[in-house]
């Protein structure tokens, strides 16, 4: 099973190493031609506005949109979740997402006073034990459309993990902790979609 990790910017190396730990053939993806060679794609954390610009520069944005619309399984963490949203709130001027998951996502939703934090989350979809989640200048999901499942919420009810079909997104960074059940869950989706 070959998984591409969008390697324009951000913490793609961490994702590659987690995916390899599950035995997947994880490769950095930078060219549109490489999209047809992967069974799934991970969009890492980083800075979504920069990722958007680089995706245009590398002529990857439209091919990525097409691949997502054609059903490629994709998992986005943090900036990756922003990229997968249909609508960005508090984006920089001209910033666009790739779309795919019918949600509104607010960038930097926790403000500068809470730059980062960690919390234990209940995520029934991946198992009973709580998941220790790391949030870094994280986005939050403010609207979810029909067909989108909220997989995890903070205590105040704000949604921080979503799934729509083969598309998965988390506000937090499982690639930075030792608990990789989200990657495993994603790989199950990729396997099931083949
Ligand atoms: N704040 C970043 C953005 O807007 C996301 C941060 C992250 O990926 N850790 O893209």
From TrEMBL:
GO MF term list: glutaminase activity; pyridoxal 5'-phosphate synthase (glutamine hydrolysing) activity
Name by which UniProt lists this protein: Pyridoxal 5'-phosphate synthase subunit PdxT
Signal peptide span: none
Organism: Terrimesophilobacter mesophilus
Role, per record: Catalyzes the hydrolysis of glutamine to glutamate and ammonia as part of the biosynthesis of pyridoxal 5'-phosphate. The resulting ammonia molecule is channeled to the active site of PdxS.
Cited CDD domains: GATase1_PB
Gene designation per UniProt: pdxT
Source superkingdom: Bacteria
UniProt cross-references to Gene3D superfamilies, sorted A to Z: 3.40.50.880
